[in-house]
Amino acid sequence: MAFQTLPQGEQKGDRPWWLVAFVMLAVTLGIVIFVSDLYAQVFNTVVTGLGVTVFVTLIGFLLATALGLLIALLGMSDSTFLRQMARFYVEVVRGIPILVLLFYIAFVGAPAIVALYNLVTAPLISIGLTDPMVVRDFSLMWRAIIALMIGYSAFIAEIFRAGIQSIDKGQIEAAKALGLSRSQRFRLVVFPQAIRVIFPPLSNDFVAMVKDSSLVSVLGVADITQMGKVYASGSFRFFETYSIVAYVYLVLTIGLSILLRGFEKRMRARTRE
């Protein structure tokens, strides 16, 4: 018997009164922003970082998903060495806080990458075909994206592994009997079914990355949080500024959660047909 997972605090048949309350709160604050010059000024400043937040989240999550899928496949390979390497990566990365990983990639990893690049291109540099790279050429935004990619890829790898292993082995054996190659079995049999298990936790990680993207502000990347910090430090309007910052993040995360939940329900409905 299958049990449908409902959001925490909800039972089947409950009306989403929490959503009604949130919409009322969001509309009220929206009206305040519209009629108040102070709140409008804060809002206009904060939303200038929205593009950076969206870019960091989308690129970071896409790269983390690709890397996570690769790590998951390596973790299920026939090679003991590859399986152990994948497990080592997952356990080590999951044990490091995202903020620490962000600092490590920004101030240790980036200089190492630059040094490696200069070493590889040394022959070209020596004859003047290219210039040596310096650390400041490695933008802080891309350092943050790489850190988020690495940090989330370990969790996403476990999501993919659990989803793929949830597929009944009898179907895989049947695909083998039909003469399908390993890649064909994965592409045509395993993954289309596994995505139903993978999508809910994967969408949760996407929403979580929207929130964790605020950590890039510690590097001075001009996202929503950083723009709020800059405005608050200059105006000392901490209540107004961080109320707007929280408001923008809530609209983003709850809006995304509702959209992804609706997509998940449509996906389930299609599989029942």
Describe this structure in words.
The chain is mainly α and 273 residues long. Helices cover 77% and strands 0% of the residues. The chain is built from eleven helices and no strands. The chain has helices spanning 17-35, 37-46, 50-75, 80-94, 98-120, 122-126, 140-165, 169-177, 182-212, 224-235, 238-272. Residues 1-6 have low confidence and may be disordered.
Primary descriptors:
273 residues, mainly alpha, MetI-like fold
Compact summary:
This protein is mainly α.
List the helices and strands and how they pair.
Blueprint: H1 17-35, H2 37-46, H3 50-75, H4 80-94, H5 98-120, H6 122-126, H7 140-165, H8 169-177, H9 182-212, H10 224-235, H11 238-272
Large-scale geometry: flat
The average pLDDT score comes to 87
- Provide the CATH superfamily: MetI-like
What is the CATH class?
Mainly Alpha
> What's the gyration radius in Å?
23 Å
Distance between the termini: 18 Å
Helical run tally: 11
Percentage of residues in helical conformation? over 70%
Number of domain units: 1
| Helix-strand string | HHHHHHHHHHH
Amount of beta strand? under 5%
- Total beta strands: 0
CATH architectural name: Orthogonal Bundle
